[in-house]
Amino acid sequence: MIEIQHLTKDFGNHKGIFDVDFSIQRGETTGFIGANGAGKTTTIRHLMGFLHPDRGQALIDGENCFQNAEHIQSKIGYLPGEIRFMNAMSGQSFIEFMAQMKGVTDLKRANELIHYFELDTKVDIKKMSKGMKQKLGLVLAFMQDAPILILDEPTSGLDPLMQKKFVEWIQNEKKRGKTILMSSHLFEEIEHTCNHIVLIKEGKILVNTSMEEMQKKRNTYYEICFSSHKDALAFHQKYKKSNLQDHQVVLLWNQDIQTLLKELSNYKLNNLHVYDQSLEDFFLSYYQGEAI
After folding, report:
1. Are 251 and 176 within one domain?
2. 10 shares a domain with 149
3. Does 122 fall in a domain?
4. What is the pTM of this model?
5. Residues 143 and 241 in one domain
6. Domain boundary among 157, 190, 210
């Protein structure tokens, strides 16, 4: 449904995107992860038809996004990373104005969204906080009930309660079969909403995988509390990449668990805690150039 084929836009000085290539199937929710300036917004702007690539192409339903921008935009609920509004208008007036522009004649869904995100639309936009403007952007993105959603940092400026409500809304949109591309730097948000992940660094794709496959690759942390510092030190010296603090060793392990348990049987332990590597840690290891 969404295809990005060897897309390149070179702004010079190593800025831009380079040979970006990935696709999103109908009904799939893809998380687009990367540091600020990595190329997420530039890629998204190509999908919206705002930029012409130097090489490659962006397609939605087989149509070229730049050549058929107006038609393609009619299918998309879009939230830009940097939202600009008409400050002289109230929130309600702007929603009605945008509904008219988008051909939305029934404001029932818009009103549902206003209530859901607890937005006071009587307030003039120029007096709105960052969080209120973000809520307004979400109302505008979702109100036409488009089959495709492209959301650039959708929870920026939202408090934790509203972030949670956003995640619940996206989960419901997934159930309704929407195709969603969502850029975010909040790994927990991505983990709770997406079934596919694309990681971009310095304009190039580093990871393009399903959440299921990524889960299989994630390591496990073992927090081992030894009965003595001597034992903890002896274990740490065998596993140099572990972290030692007094009687405790934290070990990142992705090999056969029986091998580790056999080794631990040689020591007296006070406690053992096991927890999975976080999504954030997993992707930071790619950014830092470590082997997974």
Report:
1. no
2. yes
3. yes
4. 0.85
5. no
6. 210
Has residue 289 been placed in a domain?
Answer: no
pLDDT in tens, 178-221: 999 999 878 888 989 999 999 999 999 999 999 988 877 777 89
Q: Which residue has the higher pLDDT, 254 or 177?
A: 177
Examine residue 169 and state whether it is found in any structural domain, yes or no.
Answer: yes
CATH number of the domain where residue 69 is located? 3.40.50.300
Count of residues in the chain: 292
Domain that holds residue 186: 2-210
In the predicted structure, residue 289 carries a pLDDT above the cut 70: no
Report the domain count for the chain: 2
If you write DSSP's letter for every residue of the chain in order, what string do you get?
-EEEEEEEEEEETTEEEEEEEEEE-TT-EEEEE--TTSSHHHHHHHHTTSS--SEEEEEETTEETTTTHHHHHTTEEEE-SS----TTSBHHHHHHHHHHHHT----HHHHHHHHHTT--TTSBGGG--HHHHHHHHHHHHHTT--SEEEEESTTTT--HHHHHHHHHHHHHHHHTT-EEEEE-S-HHHHHHH-SEEEEEETTEEEEEEEHHHHHHH--EEEEEEESSHHHHHHHHHHSTTSEEETTEEEEEE-S-HHHHHHHHTTS-EEEEEEEEPPHHHHHHHHHTT---
Strand partners, 46: none
**Does pLDDT of 292 surpass 70?**
no
Percent of the chain with pLDDT over 70: 98
Query: What strand order describes the sheet that includes 269-276?
Result: 243-245, 248-253, 220-226, 269-276
CATH number of residue 237's parent domain: 3.30.70
Q: At which of 160, 178, 210 does a domain end?
A: 210
Mean pLDDT of the chain: 93
